[in-house]
Structures are given as C-alpha cells and as structure tokens.
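This entry is listed below:
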Amino acid sequence: MATSALRMQVAEHLQALSGDRVKSLVVQWLLETDSDLEGFQQSLTDDGSAELEWGDITTEGEFRPLSEAEMIAGSMAALKQYQETGQSFSQESMQQWADSLSHDGEP
C-alpha cells in the first residue's frame, strides 16, 4: 500500500478514537513494534475496543450482555428506585465491592 494511503487510513482510524485511547495505542506501538507505520496500522487493526460488549454481572458472577435499550431501561429503573427510596451506596462500599471482583487472588 502506498505510504500516503496508509497515512490516510491511520489518520481516519485515529480520529474516531478518544485522546486517551490514541495515546495508549501510540505508546504500545512505540514499545512493542519496530515503530514503522505498517506496525502502527497493525496495532490499530488489533485494537480490541470494537469488540467491547456492554452488560451486567449476574448474582452468580457471570457476565450477561445487554442491548442498548436494556441498558437504558436498567438505568432508568435504578434512577426511579433511587428517587423513590433514596437508597444509595457509598463510594467506599462500591470500592470494596469492586476490589472483591479480582481474579485469582490478584489485588
């Protein structure tokens, strides 16, 4: 592929990403490849961000994928419950819960 076409493809891909994601990809590219433009394009192709799924975690600890409509409905239901009851969780209790999700005893 011609260098100018390759540069254009890379630029178009980068424009769709957040600044932090671009920064992360560039650092990864510099540290893990021979730093040529083809290597950078490959790291963009290998970028797993397009593979992300949204969902929730069941009481059994399993991930359950949800559609955008299901995510919105769940958020609206949680907001309604909060408005009706005022029940909430502290940042500290949420941090403890998140920390308890570590795998294989890792911190």
